[in-house]
Design goal:
Blueprint (H helix, E strand, L loop, with lengths): L3 E6 L3 H12 L4 E5 L14 H10 L2 H6 L3 E3 L1 E6 L5 E5 L11 E3 L2 H14 L3 E4 L3 E6 L4 E5 L2 E10 L6 H5 L3 E3 L5 E9 L12 E5 L4 E6 L4 E9 H4 L4 H11 L1 H7 L3 E10 L3 E3 L3 E2 L2 E3 L5 E2 L6 H23 L5 H24 L2 H7 L8 H10 L6 H20 L10
Parallel strand pairs: 1-2, 1-10, 2-7, 4-13, 10-19
Antiparallel strand pairs: 3-6, 4-5, 8-9, 9-10, 11-17, 12-15, 12-16, 13-14, 14-15, 17-20, 18-19
Helix pairs in contact: 1-4, 1-9, 9-10, 11-13, 12-13
Length: 410
């Protein structure tokens, strides 16, 4: 029996997307997923440019049918709630997509996987991959339920980063050593009207928090802290302590009800040194993950899934283990991750927040930041020079205080 064209390890958004695009090109695909869908997952806030991918895949109506919350912007607020600013995606000037969704990941991810299956991908759930081998003319994947062969292997295992860890390629970000503690809550009072679907990001002295409105009145709430601040502490106690330290969080979570236990992610900011090698490609979080703050995770997962599929299709059609398209894929994904990493590193500094809270300048600098927040990664020169100027002003703010200091505690 001839080997399949591609084996994909992992059935999350990256794996489902890559399988869908491979099948649309007529390639045979086997997806191996260790869990049974639907399953809980964090990362519920999507970017506007995700919507473009949904249209391309023909699933936009399916996303809406999940009861997804319409997301038009993001609100940033200080710990005491006295200062806030809103980013409305359609006001971005440079944005071509003005809205997105907040989704519950369990049904969303299951929908993506079933879509890939409907396209003809073979899906095996509840299968654990234990090893793999890259041979001269094929790959071999060993699982607890048998061995499979294919011409190419795509790693979509998320932060488990199966092949990257096996090959010693993973590198933890030196300054983004964070811990996220999160859960779902009920009865959380959030804005109404147009802002009802906004993600709310609360900037504290040393931490930041997210609040994401979900279907059926649930709200995803997370606290992100430095690893050193949480080390040795009980996660629930740390979560409650951070909430107690913030006037804003105390006010909106004071009468809420937590649904289930809190969950914890540690040291999630990392990147592999390479994303492509002979007969092997890494997509989504298996290539690297930066930080949840600007909701880039699902978008980069699906974008890399589409682009990774195209690169592997090129290799399959040329019958080569490595082609220029795969190298270009790695270079492009690295550049996309760099754009978000720069923004995220600056977000954790006070000067960045102080400038972000200011009104729009005549040069439309906030519009440039807005375009990146929306997911526009094909950055034109009109956006690039504005981003560079904004980042330069952040450095100036740190030294000379262009605008008044912003209180981040209380």
């Amino acid at each position: 029996m001839s080997p399949r064209d591609v084996i994909v390890i992992g059935g999350g958004p990256a794996g489902s997307t890559v399988a869908t695009f491979l099948r649309e090109a007529g390639k045979s695909v086997l997806v191996l997923e260790r869990e049974h869908f639907p399953r809980f997952h964090i990362g519920e806030s999507l970017l506007p440019y995700n919507t473009r991918l949904f249209r391309e895949m023909g699933i936009l109506d399916g996303v809406r049918a999940l009861g997804s919350v319409r997301k038009l912007g993001a609100r940033f607020t200080t710990s005491n709630g006295e200062r806030s600013t809103r980013v409305r995606f359609s006001d971005g000037h440079f944005n071509e997509e003005g809205e997105s969704f907040q989704v519950e990941r369990a049904p969303f991810d299951a929908m993506l996987l079933r879509h890939a299956e409907a396209k003809g991908a073979e899906i095996l759930e509840g299968v654990r991959v234990s090893d793999y081998a890259i041979e001269r003319d094929h790959v071999r994947v060993i699982t607890d339920k048998g061995t499979h062969e294919a011409r190419f292997l795509i790693d979509a295992t998320g932060v488990a980063n199966f092949t990257g860890r096996r090959e010693g390629l993973s590198k933890i970000h030196p300054t983004l050593r964070k811990v996220a503690i999160f859960g779902h809550f009920q009865d959380v009072p959030l804005p109404e009207g147009e802002e009802a679907g906004d993600i709310v990001i609360v900037r504290l002295q040393r931490e930041w928090a997210w609040l994401i409105p979900l279907p059926e009145g649930r709200v995803s709430v997370g606290i992100v802290s430095d690893r050193s601040a949480v080390s040795g502490a009980d996660p629930s106690a740390h979560f409650e302590g951070v909430v107690a330290s913030s006037t804003y969080l105390r006010g909106i979570l004071g009468r809420s009800r937590r649904m289930g236990e809190l969950r914890v992610l540690t040291d999630y900011s990392y990147r592999n040194r390479t994303f492509a090698s002979e007969r092997l490609l890494r997509v989504g979080d298996a290539a690297g993950f930066i930080d949840p703050i600007f909701s880039s995770g699902v978008y980069l997962a699906m974008l890399s899934g589409r682009d990774g599929a195209r690169a592997v299709i090129s290799a399959l059609e040329r019958n080569r283990p490595m082609v220029p398209a795969m190298r270009r894929y790695g270079k492009r994904l690295g550049a996309q991750m760099n754009r978000y990493q720069k923004l995220i590193e600056l977000f954790h500094t006070r000067p960045f927040i102080e400038l972000l809270f200011e009104e729009e300048s005549p040069f439309r600098l906030r519009c440039a930041v807005n375009s990146l927040l929306a997911g526009r990664l094909d950055v034109p020169w009109a956006v690039r020079w504005r981003l560079r100027l904004f980042y330069f002003l952040v450095r100036v703010q740190a030294r000379f205080g262009l605008v008044p200091p912003l209180p981040l505690s209380g």
